[in-house]
């Protein structure tokens, strides 16, 4: 209590200093941006500044970078397009000035969830997070709070938007976190392009490049053939079709060093109809020309892959019956033809890439993938999955090529709203292996059944759902109406031993004596016993009474892989998350959102802890560098008072 009073008095005494610092914060930022020679990529043309919540300081910075008067943005409400800035061959522009290498410790606190010191740290994020709750249960509010804390901790992010308003929501969170310059929005306009085949061929390594490129195409084709409603039918891609696809891609890669989708489709459509067709008019089969080009680079015996492909097209295919051969051709053509749809081809295959997973992993970008399901349906899923899976594989590989301490690897989060729309078979492996590569996943979903549908449904979908959830070790469980999901959540937390009292009573009557002189007697007795029984630590009905945000408060149960919380000594903790529209307190207007409020919380409340500096560290820094005494104390007090302008300014100065 004494500490709480002391902190409150300090905050009142230094509030004038905070006010002065807040007033000149924008001026210092503007002066620094006017002298900066670095170039930043802007996420998208024609962005409505008033709608996205960009501060005037950011408008002035954009104006200085593009040599455009700030009044222009005030009148037009737009920012410069990405094409007005220079680009690299396979990615976005990274600041040319040397960047300070940050270190990301596993015990770095990101989100504080109780006044007892319970935290979600980096090591918890790297175990991946599952955020479950029924529609309207407050998942978006919770994901926004957790995402903002991660961005303030300088994590990079890929955000898949399943709803039409998610892109603006994610952009505003990045602005509040001070990361607006890192935002890139990819949509169906074709401004930003990524070719997953080219990326796989150039980055997967010679031994596995074809297999990885085939896997990217195969995954997108599978998504497209699930239809508008995710489901899994019979085996839709026969092994023969996959074999044909792989050998065509192999020949094109060895002949030309690249794989163009148009050339691939034309090659499949003109496969030789038999040995007679090969002898009479070999020029009608494009595969013959491609094999000839490949042989100019590789003699027989130098490439086993080319030798196998040559035997396949010149011996096996012509030897098949017309019905079998045409079945393979038609099936392969129909499946791959889906990649030529308007929403897919311009973004993935038409031109060279100007964005890649490397911009997220090493470039520090926040990539918002804006292909909402209401507009793009299966096309949006296929495009989003194509980039997500390439990012997952690149993230798992980066530890092999990283030079330097592992702590210098920036954590990368894959955030999927309505994650059932973005699921692939590779997700479980990526969650399982991602921790060592600083790659984690945050998946929101409505119920376990929705995840099963995302995997195609049926017993196979249920099995894949169980496998995925087993690798999402941090659970945030909101209000839930689905009985099966409530039961599964209760079973996840587990059982606990409790003493159960059993009370018994008996009542008996009897006749004493004989004949008419006899009487009746009544006997009664009670007994009580205690036994130890296993009961659910959190009964499933507990998930039905949680607040869903109507009053600005969302409640959820937090589970950290079985670890006990300091606040209650249990494996679960009921935490509240504060929405933006929550009304401030009457006595203390900043309560309960500012971090200082943690000392007055009656209910554990989640707050970003990314800018927190321990008091002992402030004192040590002041003793080590007396010149920074004022700055350190102002920064410490600004955190407790949630003076974001000062916090973001000091963070940029570092």
Query: Which structural class fits the helix and strand makeup?
Result: alpha/beta
Low-confidence stretches are 1-5, 11-99, 227-234
| Number of helical stretches of at least 4 residues | 25
Reported for the largest beta sheet, the result is:
9 strands, mixed
Order of adjacent strands in the largest pleated sheet: 5-6-4-7-8-3-9-12-13
Helix percent reads 40-55%
The radius of gyration is 31 Å
Rough shape? globular
According to DSSP, the number of beta strands is 14
**Terminal Cα separation, in Å?**
34 Å
What is the percentage of strand-forming residues? 5-15%
Residue-averaged pLDDT, rounded?
A: 80
Describe the overall structure.
- Helix content is 45%, strand content 15%.
- It has 654 residues and is of the alpha/beta class.
- Among the domains are: 1-39 and 611-654, no CATH class; 196-345, no CATH class.
- The strands form three sheets. It has a nine-stranded mixed β-sheet, sandwiched between helices. A three-stranded antiparallel β-sheet has the order 2-1-14.
- β10 (495-512) and β11 (519-536) form a beta hairpin.
- The longest helix is centred in the N-terminal third of the chain and has 33 residues, at 2-34.
- The protein is globular and about 115 Å long.
- Residues 1-5, 11-99 and 227-234 have low confidence and may be disordered.
Write a brief caption for the model.
The chain is α/β, with parallel strands linked by helices and 654 residues long.
Summary keywords:
single chain, 654 residues, alpha/beta, three-stranded antiparallel beta sheet, 45% helix, disordered N terminus
């Amino acid at each position: 209590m004494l500490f709480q009073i002391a902190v409150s008095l300090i905050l009142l005494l230094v509030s004038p200093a905070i006010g002065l610092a807040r007033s000149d914060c924008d001026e210092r930022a503007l002066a620094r941006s006017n002298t900066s020679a670095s170039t930043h990529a802007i996420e998208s043309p024609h962005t409505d500044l008033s709608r996205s919540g960009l501060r005037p300081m950011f408008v002035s910075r954009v104006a200085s970078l593009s040599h455009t008067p700030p009044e222009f943005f005030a009148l037009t409400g737009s920012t410069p397009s990405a094409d007005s800035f220079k680009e690299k061959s396979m990615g976005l522009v990274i600041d040319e000035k040397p960047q300070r290498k940050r270190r990301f410790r596993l015990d770095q606190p990101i989100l504080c969830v109780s006044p007892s010191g319970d935290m979600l740290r980096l090591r918890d994020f790297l175990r991946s997070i599952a955020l479950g709750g029924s529609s309207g249960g407050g998942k978006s509010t919770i994901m926004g709070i957790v995402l903002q804390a991660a961005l303030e901790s300088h994590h990079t992010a890929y955000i898949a938007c399943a709803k039409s308003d998610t892109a603006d929501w994610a952009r505003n969170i990045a602005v509040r976190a001070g990361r607006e310059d890192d935002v890139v929005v990819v949509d169906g306009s074709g401004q930003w392009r990524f070719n997953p085949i080219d990326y796989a061929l150039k980055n997967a390594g010679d031994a596995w490049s074809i297999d990885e490129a085939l896997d990217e195409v195969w995954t997108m084709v599978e998504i497209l053939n699930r239809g508008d409603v995710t489901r899994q039918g019979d085996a839709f891609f026969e092994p023969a079709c996959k074999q044909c696809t792989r050998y065509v891609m192999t020949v094109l890669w060895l002949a030309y060093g690249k794989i163009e989708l148009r050339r691939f489709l034309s090659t499949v459509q003109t496969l030789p109809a038999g040995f007679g067709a090969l002898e009479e008019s070999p020029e009608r089969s494009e595969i013959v020309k491609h094999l000839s080009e490949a042989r100019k680079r590789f003699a027989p015996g130098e490439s086993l892959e080319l030798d196998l492909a040559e035997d396949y097209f010149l011996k096996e295919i012509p030897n098949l019956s017309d019905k079998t051969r045409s079945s393979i051709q038609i099936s392969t053509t129909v499946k791959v033809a889906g990649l030529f749809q308007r929403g897919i081809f311009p973004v993935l295959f038409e031109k060279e890439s100007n964005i890649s997973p490397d911009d997220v992993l090493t470039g520090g970008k926040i990539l918002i993938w804006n292909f909402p399901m209401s507009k793009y349906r299966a096309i949006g899923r296929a495009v989003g999955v194509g980039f997500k899976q390439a990012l997952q594989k690149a993230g798992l590989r980066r530890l092999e090529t990283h030079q330097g301490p592992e702590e210098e690897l920036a954590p990368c989060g894959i955030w999927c709203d309505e994650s059932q729309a973005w699921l692939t078979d590779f997700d479980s492996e990526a969650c399982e292996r991602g921790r060592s590569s600083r790659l984690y996943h945050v998946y929101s979903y409505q119920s376990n059944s929705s995840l099963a549908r995302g995997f195609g449904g049926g017993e196979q979908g249920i099995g894949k759902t169980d496998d995925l959830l087993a690798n999402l070790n941090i659970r945030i469980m909101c209000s839930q109406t689905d009985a099966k999901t409530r039961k599964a959540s209760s079973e996840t937390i587990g059982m606990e031993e409790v003493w159960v009292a059993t009370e018994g009573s008996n009542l008996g009557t009897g006749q004493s004596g004989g004949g008419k002189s006899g009487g009746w007697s009544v006997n009664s007795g009670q007994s009580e016993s205690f036994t130890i029984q296993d009961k659910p630590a959190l009964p499933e009905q507990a998930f039905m009474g949680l607040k869903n945000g109507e009053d600005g408060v969302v409640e959820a149960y937090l589970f950290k892989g079985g670890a006990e919380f300091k606040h209650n000594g249990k494996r679960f903790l009921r935490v509240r998350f504060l929405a933006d529209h929550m009304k401030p307190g009457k006595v203390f207007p900043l309560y309960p959102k500012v971090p200082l409020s943690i000392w007055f919380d009656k209910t554990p409340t989640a707050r970003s802890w990314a800018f927190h500096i321990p008091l002992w560290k402030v004192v040590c820094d002041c003793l080590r560098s007396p010149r920074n005494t004022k700055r350190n104390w102002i920064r410490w007090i600004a955190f407790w008072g949630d003076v974001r302008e000062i916090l973001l300014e000091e963070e940029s100065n570092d």
